[in-house]
Write a structure and sequence with these properties.
With 199 residues, the protein is mainly beta. The protein is built from two helices and 14 strands, in the order αββββββββββββββα. The chain has a single domain, classed as Pectate Lyase C-like (3 Solenoid), CATH 2.160.20. The longest helix is centred in the C-terminal third of the chain and has 10 residues.
Length: 199
């Protein structure tokens, strides 16, 4: 059904007010499409290309889009819940007024992405690339950032006290962490990054 709709909308690349359940697409290009009020339920996307694709007031629920390309994509008023996006590429994506919850993004790339008035809640983002990311009025709650790379991403003003920050990568000056709120346990991890031994 989804594949048929993509072919039918090949000229204007616009799909609206649809629900797709248990769809499976492999090596399919959805690049440049615009989805409005579209809901994906238990769908699997394998090596698909969503480059420069836009999602408005849409949802992904229990979907797998691991290793897919979302480079320069746009999400507004969109919810991603219970999904798997391991290894996905979100470079230069724009995430506005959206929520990502209970999802995994092992080794995913969010370099140069922009987050505005959005929520990242209870997600696993181990070994993720979060370089040069802009965070504007965005909340990060109970996110596992184990060994995540935050180089040149300023976290000032964020409360990360309920997130996992063990082994994160930042610059030598640690400017990325200036003004951030962390817990006493997290502070011990940060001290270790400075080469200080706590006894």
């Amino acid at each position: 059904m989804l594949e048929e709709n993509l072919l039918q909308a090949a000229d204007d690349k616009y799909i609206e007010d649809c629900t797709y359940e248990a769809q499976m697409l492999t090596k399919t290009s959805l690049g440049g499409y615009e989805f409005k009020n579209v809901h994906f339920l238990s769908c699997t996307f394998s090596d698909c290309d969503f480059m420069k694709t836009s999602f408005y007031n849409s949802t992904f629920t229990n979907c797998d889009f691991s290793n897919c390309i979302f480079e320069s994509s746009y999400f507004r008023d969109t919810k991603i819940t219970d999904c798997k996006g391991d290894g996905a590429n979100f470079t230069s994506s724009y995430i506005k007024q959206s929520t990502i919850k209970n999802s995994t993004f092992h080794y995913a790339c969010f370099t140069h992405s922009v987050w505005e008035m959005s929520l990242l809640d209870n997600c696993i983002m181990r070994n993720v690339f979060f370089n040069e990311v802009k965070l504007n009025k965005t909340k990060l709650i109970e996110v596992d950032f184990h060994h995540a790379d935050f180089l040149k991403t300023l976290l000032k003003g964020l409360d990360l006290s309920h997130c996992t920050l063990e082994g994160i990568f930042v610059s030598d000056s640690m400017k990325e962490l200036k003004g951030v709120t962390i817990s006493p346990v997290q502070a011990l991890d940060i001290v270790k990054m400075l080469g200080i031994k706590v006894v």
